[in-house]
Amino acid sequence: MELHGSRMGRAAAAVVAAASLATAVPAASAAAAPLPRIDLTVLVVDDGGGAVDAIVSELQSTGVPYRKVDLTDPGRPVVDAAFLSDTLDGRPRAKYQGVVVPDEDPFGADTARGADENAALFAYERTFGIRQVDAHTWSHPRVGLEYVDVGGYAGALDGAPSALTAAGRSGPFHYLDGPVAFEDNSPTVTESYGYAGRPREGFTSYLDTPVGDGTARGSLIGEYAHDGRSELVVTFAYNRHQRQFRVLARGIVEWLTQGVHLGQSRQYFSVHVDDVFAPDARWDTDRNCTPGDFDCTGAGEETAPIRMTADDAAYAAAWQRTAGFTLDMVHNAGAGEEWRAEHGGSDPLTDRLLADKAQYRWINHTYTHPFLGCVQDVSVVPWQCAKDAAGNTRWTSRAEISAQIRDNHDWAVRKGLAVDRAELVTGEHSGLRTLPQQPVDNPNLAGALADNGVTWIASDNSREPQQRPVGAARTVPRHPMNVYYNVGTAAEMTDEYNWIYSSAADGGSGVCETDPSSTCLPEPLDTATGYASYIVPQEARTALGHVVANDPRPHYVHQSNLAEERILYPVLDKVLADYRVLFAQNTPLVNPRQRDTGTELARRAAWSRALAQGRVTAYRIGGTVTVKAPSGVAAPVTAPDGTRKQLLLTTTAFGTAYAGARSAWTTPAPLQSAITLRLPS
């Protein structure tokens, strides 16, 4: 396997030597002792703190199996030699390939039981070459660091200019470019606090920050090799949502598992542009509503709709080429045909988009964007589902839903658009359950999807974050971006943002005061500057947070955001720029289309079920990795570059290269019952 640094090499060598240590046979016969089996499961010792929880979230999201010992549970198992290892088929077995603990004293050496459990764990790590992550501790000699009063630092780290060391970049964090900025939420709140200590003998710093007068540096993450053990020492506080943790999480797991583990992760970013060819209604800054919406009452002229122009389309194509990023155009052909008919048979926008059709991906958004759920009764606010004389809900028919899907798809095929029949986004995600008015799916939806070969239907992640079946199809949750469908200028966007996120006393709707999931602005934003100074950084931060969290769900916006002042591009530019500052070229953004995201989510769900049911067996013996999973369930595996997959008579390169490793969803080769990988020597 690929080893990073001499200390890591010595720790890995301990695995090979583990048989002689475990069996305690004379040196002359040690060479004949069997190599130990290392099960590919992580042991987590949890004290309920945020740092351990954050690492658990990384294991969960990437598919790494783990077993948790809850220190707050009086009935928890005793962690002794029998809990950690045994002998299986005459071979020593280590039950865990890595250990995550709250700190360097996981069980509390001040009690007899704690001291015994610490001793058992540390002996296990020495015997089998198992690594330990100290999720959060402070700077002191027991973890290989000087006290902070010896040229170090203790305090807030918000905005701290930390960076990877040469050892970090060539070692477990080789997928990062160097700087790792801590999120800066000051002066309103301090979210990051830590200790930056100067390394002592045996300590290799991977991430550090300037201390003292700035000429010296103190470690925030590093490896402490001592007493035949290796600890990854983290000396700053964090939680699962903070960007600095999310970008470092991959490296923490790679170090812990020595680069060989179940699970895989990517950095995903896709953007769906809804309502292409159609116009979008415009926010009324006087009435604080959108004309045409059921709750928009009062006097006022209808505002002009927002629709891209041919110049906007040309700009979109040029931006894609410069940015190296592909947008998904989610289109309503019928709405475009209606526009053409209303404008003398001319539509330069459609002509331009069709001329550049090969530069985009295209997704069916139904022909004219109708609401495909229950029949809406708009005589009341908010609207309700209309009822028939018997009191039954009236539903949009299967024939109407099917026609909307079919007609839009057929139009796209005639125009030569590269559409995928399996993908669909309904208008407003309608047809799917819409709370509170429509608590169930339109019963006619599943049949219409089947009629048209749709297997992946978009849903709104803010309402339904989990994938679920709709008949034979499955949902693909999408993240809504806070760049609103009904604005074409930065001033309009900021005005609506103020209305939603300002208190009633500040002239807003006051919704932010009553919605527990919302927070009010300290004061309304300046409509001339607020979009660029506040909203763009906020939305880019949120989107990048999804990207670095191994979240494949696409984001969605609307064609109005590419029109007029083209306010989407500053957000996308910042996401892409911030990503490229953080990550090395070996870790490119993955830009999946809707069906690929759906497939990824479905594989994850099947894998999680198999793990929960205890139906996965995976282990490493020397340079061979064996994985057994239920039939039909693909296993996610990550291994070093140079790993090969065993076929019946030969081997082939395993997986695809990403973040300096090889990984893939994989199944056994033909005529084999298990996945077998050969690690590089």
List the helices and strands and how they pair.
Elements: H1 6-23, H2 27-30, E1 37-39, E2 42-46, H3 50-62, E3 66-70, H4 81-84, E4 85-88, E5 91-94, E6 98-101, H5 112-128, E7 131-134, E8 153-156, E9 161-164, H6 166-170, E10 179-181, E11 193-196, E12 203-211, E13 216-226, E14 229-234, H7 243-257, E15 261-262, E16 271-276, H8 310-323, E17 328-331, H9 333-342, H10 348-355, E18 361-364, E19 376-377, E20 384-385, H11 398-414, E21 419-424, H12 445-451, E22 456-460, E23 469-470, E24 473-480, H13 490-501, H14 511-514, H15 530-547, E25 555-558, H16 568-582, H17 594-612, E26 617-621, E27 624-628, E28 635-640, E29 644-646, E30 651-653, E31 656-658, E32 661-666, E33 675-678
Parallel strand pairs: 1-5, 2-3, 2-6, 6-7, 7-14, 16-17, 16-25, 17-18, 18-21, 21-22, 22-24, 24-25
Antiparallel strand pairs: 1-26, 4-5, 8-11, 9-10, 9-12, 12-13, 13-14, 15-28, 19-20, 23-24, 26-27, 27-33, 28-32, 29-30, 29-33, 31-32
Helix pairs in contact: 3-7, 8-10, 11-12, 13-15, 15-16
How would you describe this protein?
Helices cover 29% and strands 22% of the residues. The protein has 3 domains: 6-259, Class I glutamine amidotransferase (GATase) domain (Rossmann fold), CATH 3.40.50; 271-484 and 557-594, TIM Barrel (Alpha-Beta Barrel), CATH 3.20.20; 617-678, no CATH class. The model is unreliable at 1-30 (pLDDT under 50). The longest helix has 19 residues, at 594-612. By secondary structure, it is of the alpha/beta class. A hairpin with a 2-residue loop joins strand 23 (469-470) and strand 24.
